[in-house]
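Sample 1 of the test manifest.
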Amino acid sequence: MLSCCLRLCVSGLALPPPFLLQPPRAAGPSVRHLLLRTLNFNFRQPRLMKPLVVFVLGGPGAGKGTQCSRIVQKFGYTHLSAGDLLRDERNKPDSQYGELIEKYIREGEIVPVEITISLLKREMDRTMEANVQKNKFLIDGFPRNQDNLQGWNKTMDGKADVAFILFFDCDNEICIERCLERGKSSGRSDDNRESLGKRIQTYLQCTKPIIDLYEEMGKVRKVDASKSVDEVFGDVVKIFDKEG
Ligand code: ADP
Ligand code: AMP
């Protein structure tokens, strides 16, 4: 049993010194057990760190996903896109929410918060359970409205630290052109002019006020996303270097 516990420990924590790895004696608490208790090793459950979150916001097509994959490579974050998680859930044949999610996505509207948060939380938990060191997350496309924000505060209050909001600021026309270009190969049901009109409206009416709210709190780090991918990433790197 102890050896099984020890194996669990290996994945997450530093190994105890070799003399602590001897097999247990038949009965009674051994010196080793007492020592382990004193040293407070927790073999069953590696202690998970609190997730450190950067919310990534901006209009549709501002380049959030593009920049997030670069941030992942350079700074070791895990990228969770609310839109991707919802699309994955929609595509599961046994999902009870598939049809509902598709309807919201096609209309460019915001999916009910309970669904989005449960998907985000599940992915964060999975990531950290697989590797306790992986506690830094880029949450892309969230919080998109007041409902998202309240849901996050209710569910995640005290359970995660939001470092800052990375805001990709991009002209609406550029956003639309990029999404139409992406739509030639993305297969997305919302990369078309009709859906994009609605998505831009949703962004302006629902998401921008959330960014403004965080701005008042001094939490927004804004990047001019109309520049080239490399230029935008150059500015992003400066922010992450500074924020640590
Ligand atoms: P978002 O995640 O914000 O919806 P994406 O990262 O998917 O946006 O980018 C939308 C489209 O625009 C993609 O086809 C991508 O290749 C392209 N793109 C992203 N950033 C830039 C940029 N800075 N300049 C030109 N095209 C870009
Ligand atoms: P995106 O991939 O970020 O462009 O998102 C595509 C669509 O997924 C949006 O237009 C919404 O319908 C849905 N969606 C993405 N993020 C959220 C969110 N945080 N809350 C609810 N719906 C979302």
